[in-house]
Queue: 4 jobs
Job 1
Amino acid sequence: MEAIREIKTVEKGHVNICLPRQFWGQQVEIIVLSMTQRDEGAIAKKSLRGCLHQYANAAFIDREHEAWQNAVDEKYGDCGCFTLDISCG
């Protein structure tokens, strides 16, 4: 099922919609919903920063820098192939 979404302004009780040829001669369902007026430029973006702080474990904070390497070693074993050192600053 293909769907088309268009936002139109009702003028004098009428809305004009031009449908593609694939819809010609077929029954279609038209759903009309009123839109709330909003200023598109005024929509504030919400940040997820800090949303998981409640799950932080202070005992592990000092070990964060080695967490990825430990997880790989635990899953795949220490293959001894290489050591990847990613230091920030």
Job 2
Amino acid sequence: MRYAIHALKAASMCMLSISLLSARQAEPAKPITPTEIKRAINARSDVDECDSLDQIHIDHLEYYDFTGDGQPEAVVVASTCMTGTAGPDVHAVYTRHPHGTLAELPLLNAKGDPPWSDQVNQAIPVFGNPNYTLTVDGGKLVVRWGDSSDRDQPLTVWYNWDGTKFIVDHAKLQGPFPTSYDCKKATKEFDRAICYSPEVAALDLELGRIYRETLQKFRADQKQGLQKQQREWLARREKTCTIYKWWVDCLKDLYTKRIAELRGATTESTPSRGAATDPHDFASRTNFPNLAASILGTRLIYRSPHAPAQPD
């Protein structure tokens, strides 16, 4: 009899434990709070610790259960006390461990950027002050890149959670656009940036066409001067328009003026066969002083509104 009572008590305790556990599991998962997120950000090894959590601003926060454990992860874009002009410096997806602490789900590559293709070392085609947002769309994590080019949506990448990390599902890229050169062979950032600016790429294509047409209309003894001048302009173009915030406007200004110069050169009549070919005579008759100066072998200074003053 006494044994039966003990067995009944043990069975009752077991049922109670199961009931409590079931009730606990039935409770809605506790969401990851903004304060927890700020503390996790401040404890990151790659972020200098801020004096106060108030110095950390959460720019975007939404929740989605990527891992399927019933605990929604927090998709976070934030700015810390070390944020510069480039925009938010924290992009992360936080999950809660069973013991309560927060951890990031793996997303970034070794360079600290989210990958956009299956090629590990492929450069991200965004230029001049790039940054990105993190959102959720149809159960996928979405990275939307922005930069200071004239593209409205430079690059958008969708990711799936594979159980250990986020992997690229697909991507949508604006560009490259046709230019006067082969963008597939472009290795310099400057040349690659032009390939991904629709307006500058179009101007580069037009300049290349007009330059070739102008070169064909020049006599052999004049072509060398024009070629030298074009090389100098290309070199000066890179020094004048740094790929940063306003590089598109800077390049549009330079290209527009250069195209106008070359068009002006093509309107000048080429001396007829047997006419005087003295270079000074050519310089006196043309209204394209920059080109005449190059042909005469003198130093040419091209000044744009964005260029610093240069000595004569």
Job 3
Amino acid sequence: MSEQTQRLLKIKNLTESEGGQEFFHYSTLMILQGFSLDGLLSGIEHGHVYIDFDARTGHNHGTKFRLRQNQLPLLYSQRIEI
């Protein structure tokens, strides 16, 4: 895997609008490194990762992996919360 696919920055924020302006409150910043195939397979086995076959009538949108955002760190071997 390329280094680009090995590193992910996860940011959790809350957005508020007030008086026509948008405000952001960043509550979590996490650096995830080292994608783990074992983590992906474990996530599938334990029901945290879903395989989505998106084949609509007349057009195939491909196969996707879906997971809840709080399960994302399970797919990486290194997790650094800042």
Job 4
Amino acid sequence: MSRNRLAALSVTLLVSLFLAMSMGTSVLGSQPSQRARDDIPRQLLPIYRAAADTCPGLPWTVLAAVGKLESDHGRSTARGVGSGASSEGTAGPMQLGIGGKAGNVLARYAVDGTGDGIADVYNPADAIFTAANFLCRNGAQGGTDLRRAILAYGHTDRYLDRVSKIATSYQALAPSPAPGPTPSPKGRFVGPNTPSYQRLTPTTKRLYAKVSQTFHTRSIGGWRAVGSVEGSDHPHGRAIDVMVDYPSPAGRALGWRIARWAVAYADRLDVKYVIFNGRIWTRTRGWHGYRHPADPCNCNHTLRHDDHVHISERH
């Protein structure tokens, strides 16, 4: 990786680090081993961890292992890593498909990891966030089928085995705290011990509890330092993202149940607006079409909110 690219990363690091840090798990959870600290460029380690946070169930170590195999974390001089494309049609530090035999993975899963409005396959932050999105949509979400997700990326059992070994070597031996709400012996709702939950407003914590208890889900994001759009409620602790299984019909049905429930109890729960499946509900207009400003083609499933229900609170 060139000095100029590493220098540019240091400028955008904070944005990429918190862009979609809804779950607050991997950054505060499993710690990097000494091998990980020695092998992964210091500018990339927090980006791997933040990108994995966008997909509850995806260990940051697996994402980093993919980056190691694909380009030695961007240090490879092979064709297609820093410019151009490989013979298979892959490009960038995560070797994402941009056409040809590899297909156009970038077009389908692109995520702007730096917040500059452009998803650049050669930009490490954009590439890592996009790779996390790919793994998430292909089985990693909720940890349901990591094996399938990795095979979708690398296609062979040998690739799966190598990712597993590298990921294991990257994780410190100290146990990580379990993510998600923990039951109280007295029956009182207790939220996760992460900034994602702890920095929510009291009203939003109440909403978090109601959603968790009503729909029996633990995949709920909350506070993050930087929102993906101007005026986002996440940095103020006034919004949650309830993850659903995408693209399964059951996940979509659950998402709409949650969204309609939030609207039905909008006054009682102090709901400001709800976004799901390319639609937004507001108090003044009801349900209508939604398009994220960073997704002009309206084709990014995360920015369309196909994989999560966003609920903002007024207070």
